[in-house]
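[Discussion] Sanity-checking designs against the backbone

I'm trying to build intuition for which residues belong where. Below is a structure token string of 257 positions. I'd appreciate it if someone posts a full sequence so I can compare it with mine line by line.
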């Protein structure tokens, strides 16, 4: 989430001990051994107005692959809405600052999310799962597995939504679950055409309807749009303008880091 003064507030150990020093130790070890690695920067109310500072901090540590995600009300964060979760517009502003700062520090690169979105905007084949069309790919191109063998549409459902379980690998075959589970059949019905707001949206083929897990956790149904719908619309428009200003971003977006 950022330097120790941020990370140790948002991600302390259960006993209150610092987690940052363990993260730092791991990063230093990876850098020392010249491993290729990256990190996910989670945007919360604690760091949303310090994104430039956080990106600079990560660069100083040697991190060059950064994905910028919003903290979502899942798991332990579900009861932390008021002091952790940022609204779509705040997240958009933070995301733009992160992309701009990243490009300032490394002119030949982009944040991982930005690369994926640009590829989706410019390529006919949608290679990025979470931005696939006509759905996000959950339960179709990916599955999530719990340690006890329970199977879910994706990792975001694991352990928190037993009603979304396909079955169990010790009791059913994957083929049987995929073909015959009511949940599996229902998940496959969720497309940009079965969600009212998505069906008339100009971005529907780029977005794919957003995250089914986020929609379910927010609205109690899979047949709703992503709660960060407004963010997604804005980031698509912003990145199109960035590509117009700097066409070489299309080539950069295709690079693997």
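Best answer:
Here's mine. Compare freely.
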């Amino acid at each position: 989430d950022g330097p120790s003064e941020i990370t140790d507030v948002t991600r302390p150990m259960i006993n209150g001990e610092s987690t940052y020093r363990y993260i730092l130790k791991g990063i230093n070890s990876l850098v020392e051994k010249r491993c290729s690695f990256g990190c996910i920067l989670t945007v919360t109310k604690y760091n949303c107005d310090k994104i430039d500072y956080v990106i600079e901090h990560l660069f100083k540590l040697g991190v060059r692959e950064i994905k910028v995600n919003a903290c979502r009300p899942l798991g332990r964060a579900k009861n932390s809405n008021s002091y952790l979760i940022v609204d779509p517009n705040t997240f958009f502003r933070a995301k733009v600052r992160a992309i701009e700062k990243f490009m300032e520090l490394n002119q030949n690169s982009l944040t991982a999310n930005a690369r994926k979105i640009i590829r989706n905007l410019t390529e006919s084949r949608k290679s990025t799962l979470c931005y696939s069309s006509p759905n996000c790919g959950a339960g179709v191109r990916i599955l999530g597995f719990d340690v006890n063998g329970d199977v879910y549409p994706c990792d975001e459902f694991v352990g928190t939504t037993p009603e979304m379980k396909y079955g169990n690998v010790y009791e059913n075959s994957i083929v049987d679950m995929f073909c015959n589970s009511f949940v599996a059949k229902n998940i496959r019905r969720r497309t940009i055409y079965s969600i009212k707001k998505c069906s008339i949206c100009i971005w529907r083929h780029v977005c794919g309807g957003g995250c089914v897990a986020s929609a379910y956790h927010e609205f109690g149904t899979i047949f709703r749009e992503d709660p960060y719908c407004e963010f997604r619309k804005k980031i698509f428009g912003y990145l199109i303008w960035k590509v117009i200003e700097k066409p070489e971003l299309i080539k950069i977006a295709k690079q693997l880091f």
